[in-house]
Backbone:
């Protein structure tokens, strides 16, 4: 029905002056966190509006409310003066609001073409799906925006960056009044970034209001007409892009000096090698990765999405199988290659995927904290619960973990507090090497600096910290040395002083 | 020369004669038997009886098991017909369920002998008289009760409402019992599922409710033994108790009679004989002979050690004494059949 | 703050364990059932009947104790019914040939534990979904038992100690009930107070997290399968003692009764949640219903209908209660 | 020659891997293997008569298997189908006996099936109870209800309508049993739906990733609800075929049927986790098990061996499939 829609020169008459969507006084609370506090946002048709803010500023929550994923606790959403009652993604789509999420929202078993049309299949006579049209239209669509991928490929078999481009292309396949793009470039390489921009400009030309969510300044300056900044769940400013400079934007986003986010208290790293990895390869991703990490050092690993950071993290701790290479912790080989041995030798992983690999959501906080060190509280296999709880309580106090009690189910805690519990899990066990994978993912900005302080403290206490991150400030703020990965290979290792954004990015592109 | 010639001749004649004898009764080459539940002892022994008789007559017997699944029974019979058996013998999983099967057999010109249960539209059935079996055992139980239990008869019936045959047994038992002890009552009428653990469970509950009984009747050996085990588990003595089993299916009842003081009467149904008779009926049908609709296979109540008359038992295997069993005279007609139940 | 949490801890845990979750609903259902049945039929409260109920509960509770552990690890075993029958036959056969209760029990345990081990290996090593794997094992056992014996294995050894296993008493309490209580207690203590128990919950709640913590999650699941198997070994021997024979036909539908009791007790099929007290209540509710229907002289077919309704109802009430708590 | 062989050596593994990655092809190979094996060993196995018989016998599991597979694909399970087979035979036979009308009987049965599907679907999709528990519960309730209502007596088909009898005895062109024809038509229709109707794709999406499906505007609960209704209605059709094959309403009909169907469906590569598998695969799974049991019967193997072998094959097949899946994801 709507693919013709994207052909140029057929832009609908733009109703300038009348907002495409108007959000007023939006509040949203989660257990323990105020995610949004009285936020306003107005989008104009045919205009590209950037929404900026750090992780945890409330950008995701706001667009999830637009998408109908979350309900709002207070406030109104109006479209052309009419108040909307959005209770589900279905309602939102019906109103012409299309959100492209950062997390891939594709069915991996389906073909690319089918995913493009997931929200409404073109049907032929009798309501059957017109597969020919789906294939032809998606091919035409890809052609038009210069996206080179086989529409008949199974989506799950594509690299993450291409999956994200499929997501973006999807925005063009359906009629919409408002399109939201949530960090569409997060897993793209710089030479792929032109694709989302092509799509976004086309959308705007068609009179669609575009909300571009990002924390990358250069992108915003390149494409946006207007910028709204959120910080800690509150609206900070909305101004035309012309009124902003790099500095004013950063000022609005951070609200304080960047150094305060990374309080470095620890001394210089030691010289004793705590972790040595030689020639590590896995069947899936890693190719001949070798590095060493010293006690007391934070070794930061940077890479674009799909570079193999998480794979490296999992292989190093013994969670995923390897096909060749050796890992030694404090001089002892990780053999056999499993986590049981790994933890015994003193290496553990703070996972990026808390929900499926870290938390036992149904279980109380104290059981989550003591999981790796139960043996220390047990006599003849019986747990000394008093001792266990006291130990956990110590960590709760020291790390200021906000929880109503030790018996609270951990799924009810905020991301930051969950992360602190998981860090406690490893500290209670006592490790020599900790691998932290995207330690601040899904954590609000206040808690972020606490997590950084914790990581700093870990290294200060003599642990080797191997940190996987895609956040440049995090990397530069915390790491003693920076390692860069690209497509499963280690492409560069540089000291803190050598490392610049450009150097790192160049190495990341490979 | 003559002498040798005559020997040759006579032996040839003998040969011709014996062939003629075999041809007089035309034997089916192959019989297919679809049983209800081959892993059950009763059917094990029915099959043994069939195999023995088929071997005697030089017939190839194939057995398929429905394993209590009517759909599987129909499939197995279809397989047999596709394979081209000469006669089908079927123990219906359920009387109503094999009607289409008989229809199919008829259209394929395969004669069918039913074992156990009658089916609408059947040619012939080999079966015991369930009511009569219960009845004669009931009479014996009455005599025993009059003599040893002070003329009182309070019955726990570990029954199986699932099958008309087992309902008839219970009815027959009570009716037979009442001919001797008119004020006999059925205190509990239970569904023991025909299997021992279920029988044990429901009997335990029933005995807990009211243990004022002195006769346990089971529609098969598993049921009576389940009832008896419940009695023992409740910590009761067997002194004033009579247990009556039905079937004589396998070794369980022999073991019980030898070891349980209350287990005095067994209504034996001689499954081996039933199998034997079924093969004979199949041969007759194959030859187009006239057969009665109901060929009765004999049963007999066995008091105490009477079983030794009919069976040899070496501790692991029992062997039927054909002479004794063949000497039993089955009734021409049953006193009551499942048709009477529906009235 | 710290003291506050500390002092509130014990109260919450006791309350939480005994009354907090679905057990409250179940406890009420059980109480209402008992009162209603005994009002309608006073025999319900007779000593004989209570003992009969307890003895019936014993078999289910023994296996349900293991099954609770297993379901807490997010796996399930459908082969327990078929294994129950097989164990009885093997135990009896070994008893007959050795005249030693110890050897008979040993054989039963070895077999039942072996079945558990097999299931566990298939699930943890071959990664076959436990529902399917144990359906397969169930079929193999159902067939296998008839390959082993075509007839019930009779009691030729006449060991009194064996008979006592099912019919004996300790004081006024039937021996199977004592055995069940002991197994239940061991399992309950294990689940609540030991590292092992804690790990079982953890594996069910998030296997990957447990593995990342350096715990061998596969061994834990294997353990739960083997324990379930061993429980079947005990129950199988008691059942064969009660029936005075090894019955190849026994145990039909037993797995569903056991699983129904565990689920009814609030143990989540998704793992990580549940308790043995809940299972105990679940077993009691199911068996009181069974018994009550006979005591009241109702149609025995209701013994299938009522538990079906109760399982759905109890789960639903639990969900509603949880939702209310969240709000 | 040598060139060609190096070529095949280069292409070989990937070609083979791709071939085996197609679940259906591997299953088809397996089916051919089973049929070939028994054709040589079991007498009279490879005959038109026997083959079409097996199709007729498989029609039950094929029909109900469609529903089972669809519910699996949506990420749920339905184990109440066995009891449902027995339940819907009651209105079918009773109404036919009273009215002498096949249409009314079938209509009544479908209405009954629909109700059961609504109950299962509502309790799962809207009340949020785990579908295994729901359908375990309704399985008990229905079976018990049938026992209660019938007093554990089968109800004979006294009407004996020709049209109903044809369902059991009739053969299209005197070759293919009508029951098999029905199963094949339904299979084709639903396979078409799963591939070519938006709703079919919604089922895959909901089972594959409910969150994504929700974001795409699908009503996840409604999709699951309808899947349960489809499952119940197809089981109803299977129940009608069974009632015709056994000429009565059987209270024990379909005991353990759910196990057979679940096993065949999983064997056919339909994942219990949802979103993966095809109806073709399911059908091949059913046929493999059906030909296996027919062949084993043909060999004259007793029940116990049939059970043992079937059990082993189910475990082995699923384990093989799992190993293969892991290898594909791994490499």
Residues:
């Amino acid at each position: 029905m709507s693919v013709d829609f994207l052909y140029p020169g057929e832009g609908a008459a733009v109703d300038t002056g009348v907002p495409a969507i108007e959000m007023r006084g939006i509040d949203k609370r989660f257990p323990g966190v105020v995610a949004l506090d009285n936020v306003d946002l107005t989008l104009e048709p045919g205009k590209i509006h950037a929404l900026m803010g750090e992780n945890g500023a409330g950008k995701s929550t706001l667009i999830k409310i637009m998408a109908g994923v979350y309900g709002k606790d207070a406030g109104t959403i109006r479209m052309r003066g009419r108040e909307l009652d959005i209770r589900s993604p279905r309602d939102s789509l019906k109103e012409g609001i299309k959100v492209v999420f950062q997390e891939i929202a594709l069915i991996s078993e389906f073909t690319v073409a089918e995913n493009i049309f997931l929200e409404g299949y073109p049907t032929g006579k009798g309501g059957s799906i017109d597969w020919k049209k789906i294939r032809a239209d998606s091919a035409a669509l890809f052609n038009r925006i210069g996206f080179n991928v086989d529409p008949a490929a199974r989506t799950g078999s594509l690299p993450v960056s291409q999956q994200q481009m499929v997501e973006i292309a999807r925005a063009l396949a359906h009629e919409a009044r408002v399109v939201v793009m949530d960090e569409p470039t997060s897993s793209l390489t710089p030479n792929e970034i032109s694709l989302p921009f092509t799509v976004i400009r086309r959308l705007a030309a068609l009179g669609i209001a575009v909300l571009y969510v990002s924390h990358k300044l250069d992108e915003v300056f390149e494409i946006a007409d207007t910028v709204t900044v959120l910080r800690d769940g509150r609206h900070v400013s909305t101004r035309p892009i012309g009124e902003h400079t790099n500095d004013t934007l950063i000022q609005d986003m951070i609200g304080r000096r960047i150094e305060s986010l990374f309080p470095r208290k620890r001394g210089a790293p030691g010289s004793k090698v705590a972790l040595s990895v030689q020639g590590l390869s896995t069947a899936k991703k890693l190719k001949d990765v070798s590095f060493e990490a010293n006690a007391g050092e934070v070794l930061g690993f940077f890479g674009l999405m799909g570079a193999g950071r998480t794979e490296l993290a999992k292989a190093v701790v013994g969670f995923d199988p390897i096909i060749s290479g050796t890992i030694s912790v404090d001089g002892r080989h990780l053999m056999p290659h499993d986590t049981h041995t790994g933890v015994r030798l003193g290496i553990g992983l703070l996972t990026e995927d808390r929900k499926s690999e870290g938390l036992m959501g149904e279980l109380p906080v104290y059981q989550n904290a003591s999981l790796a060190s139960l043996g220390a509280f047990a006599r003849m296999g019986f747990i000394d619960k008093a001792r266990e709880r006291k130990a956990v309580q110590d960590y709760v106090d020291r790390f200021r973990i906000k929880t109503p009690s030790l018996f609270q189910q951990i799924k009810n805690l905020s991301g930051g507090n969950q992360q602190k519990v998981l860090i406690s899990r490893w500290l209670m066990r006592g490790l020599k090497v900790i691998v932290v994978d995207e330690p601040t993912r899904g954590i609000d900005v206040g808690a972020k600096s606490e997590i950084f302080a914790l990581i700093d403290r870990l290294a200060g206490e003599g642990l080797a910290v191997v940190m996987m991150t895609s956040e440049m400030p995090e990397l530069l703020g915390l790491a003693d040395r920076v390692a860069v990965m690209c497509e499963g290979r280690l492409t560069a290792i540089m000291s803190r002083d050598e490392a610049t954004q450009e150097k790192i990015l160049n190495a990341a592109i490979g | 020369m003559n002498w040798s010639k005559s020997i040759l001749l006579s032996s040839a004649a003998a040969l011709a004669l014996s062939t003629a004898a075999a041809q007089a009764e035309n034997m089916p080459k192959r019989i297919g038997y679809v049983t209800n539940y081959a892993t059950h002892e009763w059917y094990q022994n029915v099959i043994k009886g069939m195999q023995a008789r088929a071997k005697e007559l030089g017939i190839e017997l194939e057995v398929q098991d429905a394993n209590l699944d009517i759909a599987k029974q129909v499939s197995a019979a279809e397989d047999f017909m596709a394979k081209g058996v000469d006669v089908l013998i079927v123990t219906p999983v359920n009387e109503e369920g094999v009607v289409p099967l008989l229809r199919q057999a008829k259209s394929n010109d395969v004669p069918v002998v039913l074992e156990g249960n009658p089916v609408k539209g059947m040619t012939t059935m080999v079966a015991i008289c369930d009511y009569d079996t219960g009845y004669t055992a009931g009479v014996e139980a009455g005599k025993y009760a009059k003599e040893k239990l002070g003329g009182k008869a309070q019955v726990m019936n570990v029954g199986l409402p699932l099958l008309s045959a087992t309902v008839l047994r219970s009815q027959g038992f009570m009716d037979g019992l009442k001919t001797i002890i008119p004020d006999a009552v059925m205190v509990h009428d239970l569904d023991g599922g025909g299997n021992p653990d279920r029988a044990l469970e429901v009997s335990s509950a029933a005995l807990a409710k009211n243990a004022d009984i002195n006769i346990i009747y089971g529609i098969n050996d598993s049921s009576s033994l389940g009832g008896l085990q419940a009695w023992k588990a409740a910590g009761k003595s067997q002194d004033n108790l009579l247990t009556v089993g039905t079937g004589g299916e396998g070794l369980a009842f022999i073991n019980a009679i030898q070891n349980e003081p209350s287990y005095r009467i067994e209504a034996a149904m001689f499954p081996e004989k039933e199998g034997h008779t079924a093969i004979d009926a199949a041969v007759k049908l194959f030859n187009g002979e006239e057969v009665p609709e109901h060929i009765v296979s004999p049963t007999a109540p066995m008091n105490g050690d009477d079983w030794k008359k009919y069976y040899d038992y070496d501790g692991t295997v029992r062997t039927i004494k054909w002479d004794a069993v063949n000497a039993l005279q089955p009734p021409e007609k049953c006193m009551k059949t499942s048709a009477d139940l529906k009235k | 703050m710290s003291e506050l949490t500390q002092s509130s801890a014990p109260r919450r845990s006791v309350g939480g364990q005994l009354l907090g979750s679905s057990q409250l609903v179940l406890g009420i259902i059980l109480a209402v059932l008992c009162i209603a049945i005994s009002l309608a039929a006073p025999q319900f409260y007779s000593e004989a009947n209570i003992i009969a109920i307890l003895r019936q509960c014993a078999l289910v509770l023994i296996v349900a104790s293991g099954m609770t552990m297993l379901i807490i690890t997010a796996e399930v075993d459908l082969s327990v019914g078929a294994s129950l029958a097989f164990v009885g036959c093997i135990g009896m056969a070994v008893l007959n040939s050795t005249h030693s209760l110890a050897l008979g029990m040993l054989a039963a345990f070895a077999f039942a534990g072996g079945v558990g081990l097999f299931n566990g290996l298939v699930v943890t090593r071959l990664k076959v979904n436990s529902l399917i794997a144990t359906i397969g094992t169930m079929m193999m056992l159902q067939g296998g038992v008839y390959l082993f014996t075509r007839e019930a294995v009779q009691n030729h050894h006449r060991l009194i100690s064996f008979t006592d296993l099912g019919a004996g008493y300790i004081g006024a309490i039937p021996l199977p009930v004592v055995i069940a209580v002991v197994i239940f207690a061991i399992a309950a203590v294990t689940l609540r107070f030991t590292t092992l128990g804690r790990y079982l919950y953890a594996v069910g709640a998030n296997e990957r997290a447990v593995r990342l913590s350096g715990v061998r999650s596969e061994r834990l699941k294997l353990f739960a399968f083997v324990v379930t198997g061993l429980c079947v070994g005990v129950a199988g021997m008691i059942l064969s003692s009660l029936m005075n024979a090894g019955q190849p036909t026994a145990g039909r539908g037993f797995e569903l009764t056991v699983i129904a009791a565990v689920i009814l007790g609030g143990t989540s099929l998704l793992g990580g949640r549940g308790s043995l007290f809940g299972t105990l209540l679940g077993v009691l509710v199911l068996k009181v219903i069974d018994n009550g229907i006979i005591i009241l002289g109702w149609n025995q077919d209701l013994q299938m209908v009522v538990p079906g309704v109760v399982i759905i109802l109890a789960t639903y009430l639990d969900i509603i209660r949880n939702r209310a708590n969240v709000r | 020659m040598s060139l060609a062989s190096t070529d095949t050596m280069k292409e070989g593994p990937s070609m083979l891997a791709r071939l085996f990655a197609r679940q259906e092809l591997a299953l088809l190979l397996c089916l051919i293997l089973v049929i070939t094996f028994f054709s040589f060993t079991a007498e009279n196995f490879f005959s038109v008569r026997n083959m079409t018989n097996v199709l007729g016998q498989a029609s039950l599991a094929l029909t109900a298997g469609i529903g089972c597979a669809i519910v699996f694909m949506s990420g749920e399970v339905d184990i109440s189908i066995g009891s449902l087979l027995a339940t819907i035979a009651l209105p079918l036979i009773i109404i036919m006996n009273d009215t002498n009308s096949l249409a009314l009987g079938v209509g009544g049965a479908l209405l009954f099936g629909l109700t059961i599907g609504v109950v299962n679907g509502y309790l799962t999709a809207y009340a949020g109870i785990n579908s295994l528990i729901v359908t375990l519960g309704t399985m008990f309730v229905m079976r018990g209800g049938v026992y209660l209502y019938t007093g554990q007596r089968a109800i004979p088909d006294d009407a004996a309508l020709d049209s109903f009898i044809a369902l059991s005895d009739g053969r299209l062109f005197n070759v293919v049993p009508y029951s098999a024809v029905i199963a094949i038509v339904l299979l084709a229709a639903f396979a078409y739906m799963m591939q070519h109707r938006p709703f079919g794709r919604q089922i895959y999406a909901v089972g594959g990733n409910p969150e994504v499906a929700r974001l795409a505007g699908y009503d996840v609960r409604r999709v699951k609800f309808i899947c349960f209704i489809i499952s119940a209605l197809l089981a109803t059709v299977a129940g009608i075929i069974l009632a015709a094959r056994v000429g009565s309403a059987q209270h024990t009909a379909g005991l353990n049927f759910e196990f057979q169907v679940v096993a065949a469906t999983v064997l056919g590569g339909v994942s219990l986790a949802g979103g993966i598998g095809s109806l073709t695969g399911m059908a091949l799974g059913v046929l493999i098990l059906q030909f296996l049991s027919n062949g084993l019967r043909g060999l004259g193997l007793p029940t116990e061996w049939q059970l043992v072998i079937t059990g082993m094959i189910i475990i082995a097949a699923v384990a093989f499939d799992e190993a293969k899946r892991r290898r594909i994801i791994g490499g």
About this structure: Chain A has a mean pLDDT of 84. Chain A has three domains: 3-105+176-255, 269-346+432-510, 361-430.
